[in-house]
């Protein structure tokens, strides 16, 4: 179903059971949960799906080693429950989206033998909490084995390492898969539709006034229950309902950098357990490059958070400390920052110490706001939110199904089919792997679009095909060039220069597919340039 058809569905004047504001992980998760229970659902997102926080994570599906440490050291039940729930949800994600998620071994280097019992026992507890959903047993590595796992690690003074397992995923494509699965379950979902007002009937929120940011026009969407799932922007939406509402969020920023191929670890990532300010740092293989993150500092809410020079220096300083290779700013191929919507605590100034647990706030008007949490627990957050919405609105709904419901591309996905796909269609091995791990059981549909020159690579050194642009516009609700470059594929977050080189082809093919006039093409060209420049 194309975007215009979905907008028309929202303009019929029908009263939806649920209107979800926000198309990130939690919003799309809530729309999917509700629609799969048989509720009539509409979702609107002012940007693209995953255009904010949900595409700017560290790409880990994890319980949170740091949260477990805080739970043990401070006897913090909230943090302990968060880790336990996240490890359970990690297992679910690997089952319902096996094409987008995979286990990842991580090595923690140890330079002081006294740290061995502490780190090993902590990670063994991590395994224990995962239970049957564990991905592998943590174990101690000797010096030589630790170096083999991560050859670039600084060898001077290295005593040992601890190997443990977590999950890695493509966050933006996971978010898009949630939106498309919600659509398949009957929800009406639309990107670039902004809520400009909420309205009440008899003192209760009864819907929203929305504006189409692509085609123009304003209309009302009626709903029995309205859910605010806008992440860092939750307080702004709450203010539309009640200008006097006290803020409930404390927002922080996490910066990441991507280094070129020579820094990429072969199979394992590294978890640096102690930085100058007591945070964790991850160095991870990601699409053949090296992803490093993250920082954690208080931030202002903005659509496009920037990476500051002090954050770049912070990450490079710690890399130099742990790498045997010299790392310079010129080695950075891309960078980005994401905002974390943390449930606020007025007595804590350090955002790194705020729990990543979620909270559901219900205003006197009935507006439901879901805030906090983390990517790994999006499904539980969505389930809890829909449960409360059903209660608040007196809605009749079936039980939650999302624990076993395959996401878009997963239903008939067969792991390890890459060689067959490559042979059948004459694809390079890395292209076949990319298609399988991005589209799952839809990979063949993508290949079939890639006839003629659409089967050419978009840019050299990367496995992305020109035909994927057409597929994204036809089947994945991509309506702007940056939607494709940054979220349907991760090129903009991997390599800014490569994304700039690819942009003219993306603009040309999307213009033909979506019927852009010259003015719209120029607008898109300016938007792509602004976004790509802002990422570094």
TrEMBL record:
Keywords from the UniProt entry: FAD, Flavoprotein, Oxidoreductase
Domain called Alpha-glycerophosphate oxidase C-terminal: residue spans: 400-520
Catalytic activity: a quinone + sn-glycerol 3-phosphate = dihydroxyacetone phosphate + a quinol
Matches recorded under Pfam families: DAO, DAO_C
InterPro entries according to UniProt: DAO_C (IPR031656), DAO_C_sf (IPR038299), FAD-dep_OxRdtase (IPR006076), FAD/NAD-bd_sf (IPR036188), G3P_DH_FAD-dep (IPR000447)
Gene Ontology process terms (BP): glycerol-3-phosphate metabolic process
Domain FAD dependent oxidoreductase: 17-379
Enzyme Commission identifier(s): 1.1.5.3
GO function terms (MF aspect): glycerol-3-phosphate dehydrogenase (quinone) activity
GO CC field: glycerol-3-phosphate dehydrogenase (FAD) complex
Cofactor: FAD
Broad EC category: oxidoreductase
Recorded family membership: Belongs to the FAD-dependent glycerol-3-phosphate dehydrogenase family.
Protein's UniProt name: Glycerol-3-phosphate dehydrogenase
Species of provenance: Geomesophilobacter sediminis
């Amino acid at each position: 179903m194309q975007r215009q058809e979905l907008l028309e569905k929202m303009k019929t004047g029908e009263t939806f059971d649920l209107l979800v504001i926000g198309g990130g992980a939690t919003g799309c998760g809530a729309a999917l949960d509700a629609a799969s229970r048989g509720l009539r659902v509409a979702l609107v997102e002012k940007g693209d799906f995953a255009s904010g926080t949900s595409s700017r994570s560290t790409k880990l599906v994890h319980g949170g080693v740091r949260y477990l440490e805080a739970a043990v050291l401070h006897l913090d039940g909230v943090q302990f429950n968060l880790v336990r729930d996240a490890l359970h949800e990690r297992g679910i994600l690997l089952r319902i989206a096996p094409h987008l998620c995979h286990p990842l071994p991580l090595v923690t280097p140890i330079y002081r033998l006294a740290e061995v019992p502490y780190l090993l026992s902590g990670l063994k507890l991590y395994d224990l909490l995962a239970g049957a959903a564990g991905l592998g047993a943590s174990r101690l590595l000797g010096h030589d084995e630790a170096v083999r796992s991560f050859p670039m690690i600084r060898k001077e003074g290295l005593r040992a390492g601890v190997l443990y397992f977590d999950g890695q995923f493509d966050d933006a494509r996971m978010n898009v898969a949630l939106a498309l699965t919600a659509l398949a379950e009957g929800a009406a979902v639309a990107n670039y539709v902004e809520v400009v007002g909420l309205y009440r009937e008899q003192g209760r929120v009864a819907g929203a006034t929305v504006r189409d940011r692509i085609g123009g026009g304003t209309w009302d969407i009626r709903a029995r229950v309205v859910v605010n799932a806008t992440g860092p922007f939750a307080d702004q939406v709450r203010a539309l309902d009640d200008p006097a509402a006290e803020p409930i969020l404390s927002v922080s920023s996490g910066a990441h950098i991507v280094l070129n191929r020579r820094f990429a670890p072969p199979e394992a990532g590294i978890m640096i357990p102690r930085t100058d300010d007591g945070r964790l740092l991850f160095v991870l293989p990601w699409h053949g490059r090296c992803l490093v993150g993250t920082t954690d500092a208080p931030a202002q809410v903005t659509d496009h958070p920037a990476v500051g020079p002090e954050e770049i220096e912070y990450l490079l300083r710690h890399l130099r400390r742990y790498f045997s290779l010299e790392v310079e700013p010129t080695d950075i191929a891309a960078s980005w920052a994401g905002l974390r919507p943390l449930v606020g605590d007025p007595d804590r100034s350090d955002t790194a110490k705020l729990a990543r647990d979620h909270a559901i706030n219900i205003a006197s008007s009935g507006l439901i706001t879901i805030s906090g949490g983390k990517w790994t627990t999006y499904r539980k957050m969505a389930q809890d939110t829909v449960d409360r919405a059903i209660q608040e609105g007196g809605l009749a709904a079936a039980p939650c199904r999302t624990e076993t419901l395959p996401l878009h591309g997963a239903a008939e996905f067969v792991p390890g089919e890459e060689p067959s796909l490559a042979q059948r269609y004459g694809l390079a091995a890395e292209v076949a792997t990319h298609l399988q791990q991005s589209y799952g059981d839809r990979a063949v549909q993508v290949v079939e679009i890639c006839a003629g020159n659409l089967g050419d690579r978009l840019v050299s050194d990367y496995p992305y095909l020109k035909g994927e642009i057409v597929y994204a516009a036809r089947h994945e609700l991509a309506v702007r060039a940056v939607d494709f470059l940054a979220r349907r594929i991760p090129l903009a977050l991997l390599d800014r220069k490569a994304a700039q080189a690819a942009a003219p082809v993306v603009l040309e093919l999307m213009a033909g597919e979506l019927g852009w006039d010259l003015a719209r093409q120029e607008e898109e060209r300016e938007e792509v340039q602004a976004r790509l420049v802002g990422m570094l």
